[in-house]
């Protein structure tokens, strides 16, 4: 495959990506013949689609040149479009277009596009690299100590129970709740674990005490019981990750509309 054909296939691929992204499922074709009023014409890249009963046709002329295109090339393409009729025209090239070519194309509604692979100067004045630092913190509770309100227990439990009071509490963290005096949920054990403070200087065997005012917990054997607080002994795990997105490495093509100045950065895997 020669360089000119490679460039045509490159344009076909980019415009197929653009159409797919716009939700158009039509196929972008390469190297086809279209019948005009006077002759058949070879078209480098072509697609058409129907909308509201009207067929829209687009022909692309690819010029893999290392210099600006002159007005003569634009005139020749305009002649092809005129002979075919009812078709939109796009010219794509690597470098750009001379002044006369731009003026002629603008007058006759031909789109002039610079289509090429990205270059370092394309990132001047733009964000090229984005670095994201992620710090994931997880707390692992190793020991839970529930401090009962013994004054409340003395009032609400018989003396024979208090002499050997054993409170049984079990359940998964997000279903084990602390309630207020009216039975409203305040916090579950998972929330308490997630809210534990982080100490970067000490990650193992940290201790934190949550104090509660007029709070209760439900036990398996003696029902609701008033508590003063919960003490948690825990370890902290910190995982650090850095993600680097380099736009230059993820950009497949630069597509610039010469007449409007609009520039698109086509990413690899663009859909």
Quick summary of this structure?
This protein is α+β, with helices and mostly antiparallel strands and 271 residues long.
Q: What's the arrangement of secondary structure elements?
A:
Blueprint: H1 3-21, E1 29-35, E2 40-51, E3 54-63, H2 71-84, E4 88-93, H3 99-108, E5 111-116, E6 129-148, H4 150-156, H5 159-162, E7 177-180, E8 185-188, H6 189-194, E9 206-218, E10 224-246, H7 247-250, E11 251-257, E12 263-267
Parallel strand pairs: 3-4, 4-5
Antiparallel strand pairs: 1-2, 2-3, 5-11, 6-10, 7-8, 7-9, 9-10, 11-12
Helix pairs in contact: 2-3
Can you walk me through this structure?
With 271 residues, this protein is of the alpha+beta class. It has two domains: 3-116, Trna Endonuclease, Chain: A, domain 1 (3-Layer(aba) Sandwich), CATH 3.40.1350.10; 133-242, no CATH class. Helix content is 24%, strand content 43%. The protein is built from seven helices and twelve strands. It has helices at residues 3-21, 71-84, 99-108, 150-156, 159-162, 189-194, 247-250; strands spanning 29-35, 40-51, 54-63, 88-93, 111-116, 129-148, 177-180, 185-188, 206-218, 224-246, 251-257, 263-267. A seven-stranded mixed beta sheet has the order 1-2-3-4-5-11-12, with helices on both faces. A five-stranded antiparallel beta sheet has the order 6-10-9-7-8. β3 (54-63), α2 and β4 form a beta-alpha-beta unit. α2 (71-84) packs parallel to α3 (99-108). It is elongated and about 110 Å long. The model has no long low-confidence stretch (mean pLDDT 90).
């Amino acid at each position: 495959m020669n360089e000119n054909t490679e460039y045509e296939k490159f344009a076909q691929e980019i415009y197929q990506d653009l159409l797919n992204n716009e939700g158009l499922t039509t196929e972008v074709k390469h190297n086809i013949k279209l019948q005009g009023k006077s002759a058949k014409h070879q078209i480098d890249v072509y697609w058409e689609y129907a909308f509201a009963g009207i067929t829209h046709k687009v022909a692309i002329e690819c010029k893999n040149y290392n210099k600006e295109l002159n007005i003569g090339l634009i005139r020749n393409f305009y002649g092809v479009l005129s002979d075919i009729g009812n078709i939109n025209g796009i010219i794509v090239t690597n470098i750009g277009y001379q002044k006369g070519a731009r003026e002629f194309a603008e007058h006759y509604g031909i789109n002039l596009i610079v289509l090429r692979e990205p270059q370092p100067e394309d990132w001047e004045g733009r964000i090229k690299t984005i670095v994201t630092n992620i710090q994931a913190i997880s707390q692992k509770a190793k020991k839970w100590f529930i401090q009962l309100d013994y004054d409340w227990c003395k009032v609400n439990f018989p003396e024979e129970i208090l002499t050997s009071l054993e409170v049984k509490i079990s359940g998964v963290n997000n279903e084990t709740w602390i309630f207020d005096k009216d039975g409203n949920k305040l916090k579950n054990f998972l929330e308490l674990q997630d809210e534990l403070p982080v100490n970067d200087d000490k990650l193992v065997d940290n201790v934190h005490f949550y104090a509660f005012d007029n709070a209760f917990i439900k036990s398996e054997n003696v029902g609701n019981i008033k508590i003063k607080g919960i003490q948690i002994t825990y370890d902290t795990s910190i995982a650090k990750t850095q993600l680097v997105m380099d736009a230059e490495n993820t950009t497949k093509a630069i597509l610039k509309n010469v007449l409007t100045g609009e520039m698109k950065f086509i990413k690899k895997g663009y859909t």
